[in-house]
Write a structure and sequence with these properties.
CATH topology of the largest domain: Rossmann fold
Structural class: alpha/beta
Largest sheet: 7 strands, mixed
Number of strands: 14
CATH architecture of the largest domain: 3-Layer(aba) Sandwich
Mean pLDDT: 92
Number of helices: 11
Strand order of the largest sheet: 10-9-8-11-12-14-13
CATH superfamily of the largest domain: Vaccinia Virus protein VP39
């Protein structure tokens, strides 16, 4: 009911679930992740919140309230917790009794008791207005984070989990780039769904099979996927095998085109490529996930390697759609200079989020005759 009301009011609704209880998203969710482990689910639920509102519930609800309340007490963050309804007088009485018995100090955390949803909304809106004044962004807002911060955050996932991406539920393995957390990837998925029908598709740097699986679901004739990360390759194969289109796809472990069989030269109608666009180096690259954040402007740049070989794999009418951003201007300059150097015509056919710290842009690229 809460998700339905939020959606109808124009909200963007996240659902963070336990996979064994809610293995599929319901109709009122825009974003969905599901975890097998309760603690992983709780961590993700808490880190996504800037404020927390609780309606009457049982043990699980009280556990969630206690955890964020304790984090406030320990000053690990300072975020409002709003408890709605007379039901929570019991919680208030419990906290007051701890103080009366000298078991804890007077509670100075932002804990609020609201008589109804309207009052709770007023409290949260007032708090959000202060965040806007401070130009605040959360630690999970990847467009504003350095690549090392994103990399470390993704590594927190230690077990398989479910996501909703491009209208499909997919499994993500630990150590694999989770496409649902990146707005560039989500926008690209929408574009792919609208353009892949009937096409022979190559999805490079496929991760867990994100773009390739969306293309197949949209009616692509055939999809070849590849990734340099062996864990991602196994992940993409798993998702392909558990899809309705396993007979139309294949996955290779390959650094770009290096191990794509030569039979695919001159073959593809479209190449979809969603490369990393960060330039700063990771502090420590101890997993294959680091390839998703590889520095772009050294002599081994994945962008240059891609442009050197991509035209060989397109058929005469083939086209490349490459997703990128201006988050790192040095990488962006390298890309556009590469178009000229290696003989491609290009245009930006979609530009989103240009008023933020990192835009999202879709390049349509064709080899010059």
């Amino acid at each position: 009911m809460v998700a339905q009301a939020a959606k109808r009011a124009g909200g963007h609704v996240y659902g963070i679930a336990l996979a064994n209880y809610e293995p599929e998203p319901h109709a009122f969710l825009d974003e969905y992740e599901a975890y097998v482990d309760h603690h992983d689910r709780q961590r993700r639920l808490i880190e996504l919140g800037d404020a927390y509102i609780a309606l009457p519930g049982a043990v699980g609800t009280f556990h969630e309230i206690l955890e964020v309340h304790i984090l406030n007490i320990l000053k690990e963050f300072d975020k409002p917790v709003v408890l709605v309804g007379d039901y929570f007088k019991r919680y208030q009485d419990l906290i007051d009794s701890f103080v009366a018995e000298n078991l804890m100090h007077e509670d100075a955390t932002p804990l609020f008791y609201a008589k109804d949803g309207e009052e709770a909304a007023d409290i949260v809106i007032a708090y959000f207005e202060t965040l806007i004044e401070k130009n605040y962004y959360p630690t999970t807002f990847y467009p504003a984070l350095a690549s090392d911060q994103i990399y470390r955050h993704i590594l927190k996932n230690t077990a398989n989990y479910l996501i909703l991406f491009g209208g499909l539920v997919m499994t993500v393995f630990p150590g694999v780039y989770p496409s649902n957390r990146f707005r560039t990837s989500r926008l690209f998925a929408g574009f792919v769904r609208a353009t892949a029908r009937g096409k022979k598709v190559l999805d490079l740097a496929c991760g867990h099979g994100a773009i390739g699986l969306v293309a197949l679901d949209a009616g692509a004739k055939e999809v070849v996927m590849s990734d340099i990360n062996p864990t991602a390759v196994q992940n993409a194969k798993y998702n392909l095998d558990h899809s309705k289109h396993a007979d139309k796809g294949v996955v290779f472990e390959s650094s770009l085109f290096e191990k794509i069989p030569s039979i695919y030269k001159g073959y593809f109608d479209v190449i979809y490529f969603n490369p990393p666009f960060h330039n700063e180096r990771l502090k420590k690259t101890d997993t294959s996930l680091a390839h998703a954040f590889k520095t772009q402007t050294d002599e081994e740049s994945v962008l240059i390697k891609f442009l050197q070989s991509a035209k060989e794999y397109l058929n005469p009418k083939g086209v490349i759609h490459l997703n990128f951003s201006n988050k790192d201007m040095e990488s962006l300059a390298l890309l556009e200079e590469g178009f000229e150097q290696y003989g491609y015509d290009y245009e930006i056919i979609r530009l989103n989020n240009e008023d933020t710290v990192a835009d999202t842009r879709n390049y349509k690229i064709r080899p010059r005759p």
